[in-house]
Amino acid sequence: MKALPEDQNLLIDLQLIDSAIDHAGIRLAKLPEREQIVAIHKRLENTAVELAVIETELADVAIELRRSEVEVEQVSDRMAKDEARLASGSATPKELEQLQHELASLAKRKAELEDGELEIMEKHESVQKRVNELLNDQVGLKQLEQELNTRLESATTEINKEIESSKIERAALVPKIDTPLLELYEKIRSSAHGVGAALLVGNECKGCNLAINAIEMERIKTLAADEVLRCEECRRILVRA
pTM for the whole thing? Predict the structure, then answer.
């Protein structure tokens, strides 16, 4: 294939633009905020699962605590009635003895219940503390997610502007390149990791960064300036520097 040296040089300009677009696309896809937001979503999911379990536990402990409080109240009421009867002086000596024995038993039972109630209260406080921690974590994570989304939107906007600017520049350049040469470039670029043309600097292809052997270099030197060169290794279009 033959093409004017000017057109071949334009391929390098086009390649620079295409590479800039490709690199911007990679940056766009790999913005750190994306990965961070995914991690936050995972943490929020885990927090929600743990919170559901802990809140269920808190509800159970609250029921247990209320049951313990009722038992203490019942024993206290019974003791108050017995003490009132003792104070009234209306009981017989045998009844007085029974009341005193019952009061002693009730006092012991009340002490046991109050000890148990204290343990339940401490457990309730501990579980409630964990619930509060998880709720605070949710608030903090959601706030961080919002900040990351703002940063992501800003970075995305900037990169998209770069891409759009490069596309406008590309659209202005493409019509200046001979169609067969452009079609060859596009075909190669689609199968060569986005690089269709590269400079030949000395004896090195800047597409694959490999040296061209001496025999091939001697052959290239004999070719006309409008002859389109191809790298023997990567098959990209070679443009003389």
Answer: 0.72
